[in-house]
Amino acid sequence: MAKKTKAKRKSTRQPNPVVLSINVCDTIIRDEPTKKVSLIGLFSAINAITFPATHPSMHVYIALTNGHGSYKLNIQLVREEDNHIIVGMEGGIKFMTPLQVLELNLQWGGIQFEKPGFYHFEVICNGTLAGARKFIVSQIQQQNPHTKETKG
After folding, report:
1. Terminal CA-to-CA distance of the chain, rounded, Å?
2. Which of 13, 24, 66, 98 is the one with CA 20 to 30 A from 143?
3. Is the pTM of this model over 0.85?
4. Contact 53/46 with Cβ under 8 angstroms?
5. Domain segments of the chain: what residues?
């Protein structure tokens, strides 16, 4: 008598792309002839003397691969303490092949941080978190200008 085996169901859920990198920096330069990307002024912390503090400009470079077709994409900056979304943007992306590396260069200006703490950028594909990048916003004391010693 032959054993009955259950047929495995194929998952109909579209797999999330793999996040290769999420980098926060001052500027992103793309050399068009070579398509090479230079990330200038990478950082993982912002220091401010007073709050609320406004960061003048930041770029976020995101590289994704292993995508299968089209996705709804949300990128958002979240304060971890209370999951408050500071800024975000959404749109669509499309992978021609899973081997494709899709690169995104996002720029935000005038981001206001109400208080110090931990924050992160989230990459959400079709409503599912694909990756995140943490950074910290700290309050620092104002430094007094150095004074020269006087000899008497």
Report:
1. 108
2. 24
3. no
4. yes
5. 18-139
CATH code reported for the domain at 18-139 = 2.60.40.2550
Instruction: Give the C-alpha separation, 111 to 151, whole Å.
Output: 47
Cβ atoms of 22 and 60 within 8 Å: the answer is yes
CA proximity to 45, closest of 144, 113, 110: 113
Segments of the chain scoring below 50 in pLDDT? 1, 5, 7, 9, 149-152
Among candidate residues 53, 47, 60, 59, the one with its CA nearest the CA of residue 136: 47
Please name the residues in contact with 41: beta carbons below 8 A apart, sequence gap of 6 or more: 25, 26, 27
Per the listing, tokens 């899973």 go with 98
For the stretch 43-54, pLDDT in tens is 999 999 999 999
ω into 52 cis (within 30 of 0)? yes
**Residue partners of 150: CB distance under 8 A and separation at least 6:** none
Task: Give the burial string for 13-38 (b: 16+ CB within 10 Å, else e).
Answer: eeebbebeebbbeeebeeeeeeeeee
